[in-house]
Design brief:
The complex is a heterodimer of chains A (about 240) and B (about 220). Chain A is mainly α. Chain A is built from 6 helices and no strands. Chain B has one domain. The longest helix of chain B is centred in the N-terminal third of the chain and has 33 residues. The chains are: A mainly alpha (about 240), B mainly alpha (about 220).
């Protein structure tokens, strides 16, 4: 059982490595050079993929919040907190790659463009989630209150999205064909492989983060055991 | 019926407590006036600038003053041990939430009732119109609801008052954008129909937030 898990973890690591390398290769060698934006457009594949993974990670936190409130089991809390941390890394990447894109294409590092703005809003929401966790001491209360925050926060994300989208929009509307970028089938395949690679990478990192949290729990239990049985009292 | 009576009893209790000390409303009011003063220095609010900046200044003031009052409301509840009493009483958790949220809504409404005419007079922007009042009401309902929920979370943390704005403001973004846009449209002479999209967004936000809050509040206060 334990060996199977180890093997699965190893397989996951190998698989995501291969997928990320394949995505990299396709982005630089297979995908054609975009006619108006040039090579800078290649950042798009990782930009979109990390935005998707960020959003998905927070969705996982939303679901594990519901799971925790329903069952009050520690594993749901571990999943919620791990997914937020991994999601934060990806959403930060989205914001940074977005700025790198914006500089040559729109002539500025930051524009209040809806999709970029919603990523920044998500970044702030889940930084707040992290701060909330660190401001709570009792582990059970920490899990319960942050589960509620994870649920309410995620519910506001689509509403923010609509609000910001109506507010202003200059993003190239690639997927609905609204123009701005010449989109070819090769680009489509590259995007799909990037999405798959980043999703695999998310699962791999998430799994490691969960293992880390479980080890921390085990260590805390051992410490407590040590203190009650061997220190400050006679050995029983 | 019993449910409504419970909600009402909590609202009346908060009113009575506030009437004794007046600390929440007076703090929010003085803060609002100070905010207007600071904004007028910062943005030089005169003439056309005042007209253009009015919706943003108004809602930023309401949002910041709101965090002040909300934080106080729930901190008081915990310091006096009143929340424990409420939880011991055989009443529905959602009734406690609705009572607290309605109380906070009432306090914010009192502040806005003074803020809006004052704002109109100081910056010569016509805010006292039925449309703007409706937008204010819709915007405040959602803000008070999500604020009450998050203030309940914040009072449990080590940082308390510092925590609330950090938790609340990013979640209030949809309603703040919609309220600012709707107010702006109306101030520039638009009709309610022209800002209908924003009004609908405000209504949806209010409904979603109230529903989620009622469903989750019970988990925040269980011991």
């Amino acid at each position: 059982m334990n060996k199977d898990r180890e093997l699965f973890g190893l397989l996951l690591i190998i698989l995501s490595t291969v997928a990320v390398l394949a995505a990299l290769g396709m982005v630089f060698l297979y995908a054609p050079r975009e006619t108006t934006m040039g090579d800078v457009q290649r950042i798009f594949y990782f930009h979109v993929a990390s935005a998707w993974v960020g959003f998905f990670a927070f969705f996982v936190t939303f679901l594990s919040g519901i799971g925790y409130l329903a069952r009050a089991e520690r594993r749901w809390d571990i999943l919620a907190l791990s997914s937020v941390e991994v999601g934060l890394a990806f959403i930060t990447m989205t914001v940074i790659t977005g700025s790198l894109w914006a500089r040559p294409v729109w002539g500025t590092y930051w524009t209040w463009e809806p999709r970029l703005t919603i990523s920044a809003v998500q970044l702030l929401i889940y930084v707040a989630y992290g701060m909330l966790r660190s401001a709570l001491e009792n582990p059970e209360k920490k899990a319960r209150l942050s589960a509620v925050y994870g649920i309410v926060a995620f519910v506001t994300v689509p509403l923010s999205w609509f609000a910001i989208r109506w507010w202003r929009t200059i993003h190239p509307d690639i997927l609905t064909g609204g123009g701005g970028m010449a989109f070819t089938p090769r680009m489509g395949y590259t995007l799909l492989v990037s999405l798959a690679a980043f999703t695999l990478l998310y699962v791999t990192i998430l799994r490691q983060r969960i293992r880390l949290e479980r080890s921390a729990d085990a260590l805390a239990r051992l410490r407590a055991h040590l203190e009650t049985n061997y220190i400050g009292g006679s050995h029983v | 019926m019993r449910f409504i009576r419970t909600v009402w009893a909590i609202v009346v209790k908060d009113m009575a407590a506030e009437f004794h000390t007046r600390e929440m409303i007076s703090a929010m009011l003085v803060f609002s006036v100070l905010a207007l003063l600071i904004f007028s220095f910062a943005l030089d609010l005169r003439g056309a600038v005042a007209q253009a900046a009015a919706p943003g200044v108004l809602w930023a003031t309401v949002a910041f003053a709101g965090t002040l009052g909300l934080s106080r409301s729930l901190t008081r509840e915990q310091q006096t041990g009143c929340i424990d009493g409420l939880l011991l009483a055989p009443v529905d958790r959602s009734a406690i939430f609705l009572g607290k949220a309605l109380g906070n809504l009432a306090f914010m409404a009192v502040v806005e009732a003074i803020l809006l005419p004052l704002f109109s007079a100081l910056f010569d922007v016509p805010l006292l119109r039925p449309g703007v009042l409706l937008v204010t009401a819709l915007g405040t309902v959602g803000y008070a609801a999500v604020g009450t929920l998050l203030a309940t979370i914040a009072v449990n943390t080590r940082a308390r008052e510092v925590m609330l704005p950090i938790l609340l403001l990013p979640l209030a973004i949809p309603s703040l954008i919609a309220a600012v846009q709707a107010t702006g449209g109306l101030v520039e002479g638009g009709t309610l129909a022209e800002v209908g999209g924003w009004m609908r967004l405000l209504v949806v936000y209010d409904l979603v937030i109230v529903a989620v809050s009622v469903l989750t509040f019970g988990y925040l206060v269980e011991e």
